[in-house]
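quick one
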Amino acid sequence: MATTVKHEIGSWDTFHNNGPFPTKVLYETLLEAKGNMPSITDRYNDAAAEIQRLIQLALSNREGFRAYGSAWSMSHIAHQKDNMHFNTAMNLKRTIDVDELHPNATYVRENLFFFECGNIIKEINQFLFDNGKSLKTTGASNGQTIAGCVSTGVHGSALDVGSVQDSVVGINLIIGAGIDDIVYLERHTRPALNDVFASRIKARIIRNDDLFKAALVSLGSFGFIHGITVEAENRFLLNRYVKRISKDKALQLAQTLAFEDADFVVEGETDAGGKPLRPYHYKIFINPYVNDTEYVVEAMYKKPYRSGYPDPVPRIKTAIYRDLILLFTSIAERFRNSIPSLIRLLQTSVLPPVDLQVTGTIGEIFWDAGYQGPAYACAVGVDSRDSPKALELLANLAKNEGPIPGLYAMRFVRQSDATLAFTRFPVTCMLEIDGLIWNPQRDNIISLPQFCTRIIEVLQANNIPFTIHWGKNADWSFPGLIEHMYGANAQQWKECRSALLKEETAALFSNRFLQDTGLSEYIVNAPLALAASVV
Ligand SMILES: Cc1cc2nc3c(=O)[nH]c(=O)nc-3n(C[C@H](O)[C@H](O)[C@H](O)COP(=O)(O)OP(=O)(O)OC[C@H]3O[C@@H](n4cnc5c(N)ncnc54)[C@H](O)[C@@H]3O)c2cc1C
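structure w/ flavin-adenine dinucleotide:
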């Protein structure tokens, strides 16, 4: 039997210390030992029964229950005051058997994999590599769990690929303690797995595009995500370059993404006619305090996999243009205890020298997180065509109403069809601001909450449609914020959630974050057809 360790913790915090938050109980469920229960499916179903026991306990006590992964989200999205469940010991993973593919599936069976919620990206990368495959995209580093990534919409800067949730083709949710409360969701227009698979995990199948899209970026609130079916692809390599280019050119590319017609040419990354190739990944790093004529950009080009390339990890370990917070802390190291001195440094210095060129797999390039202390991160999504204007506005905000200790970056991500995906524009530019947490009184500068509020006000005042990364710092209680960002999709999400969950389980899987955003609203009359199979 899976066993659960219970800790009465009193308070809980995120990986980057964005709390602490008062919390009664922390659970951690450990799988039955392989030796005692050799079948992966048996161990998986055994863990599901244990999660249902915990859910029943919370329901009986009229308390909340929330799963979380690596606690890498910097908002309070993962927090629940009553019961939190730490998932990373629930990390079963498997391929899909021949008899489990749906007859109408358009997927290649060998590309489909089933991961239990607590698998972190690093172990998924290794498992897929061992099977000759790769994730299509990840974030800039590899410590998040798969369920955490999907629940908040984690992205890299893969302009034509999308975010982590865009590779998901099935979701196994535990939505209550009853026999009918293990469900497996798929799109009805793109089924992947059949009833044999569902019966093996004792799930009721619901094939419904709208429900699937709502549950995809679920903010932890559609139930306990127990497992996720992911579409991978063949292993590939990325040639990674970090270059200084003129600010105008960098921003023009941000706006148009017309790489093939631009004069941004990386030696060796051209077609037979000498035209620039379109990169897989494009990212811009910006110091908002220096009127530099050049920006640092990171570009990556996708190549077929080959063995025998030099081990990139020693170089990646020392590379600083990987993750914005890593770049920032590398610069800030000496001034960590003096924010005013740090800001003076930012105001007078250009970004450090660029990293060397390197080639590797997704797992080698988007590697371990290099910084583990207190930090904040704000990230707004705008249409890539609006990105230069949005950057100008938010850089001016930092200069005129700050200064705040932070650097900026821009990443670019293809549109997602998840109902509440913040990557909702044809190509979304994620404009990020990362830095060290400061003390507004001691340092005599605007507070982080005030700065977050001003980001929203400035974008609204300038009529720039935007979204905000669910796992980052923001003024989540800003009046009308969710409707402003998502319009009718917000209502659709609430209706789908209300149709799938009973009122008491909707409350169970809710938290303060959901209340702050207004998304906890239960629509009593939501049509039940929203949670029924379409075919
Ligand atoms: C160092 C660092 C680097 C980062 N880089 C990126 C990046 O490159 N791109 C990017 O987009 N973001 C990035 N982020 C943000 C972070 O990746 C996301 O917020 C992500 O959600 C964190 O995953 P997690 O496993 O830590 O999830 P958590 O933060 O633990 O949880 C996130 C949400 O998922 C829910 N959840 C988790 N597991 C389950 C489950 N089994 N069932 C139901 N709900 C569940 C939680 O309730 C919560 O709502 C970074 C953060 C850090 C600290």
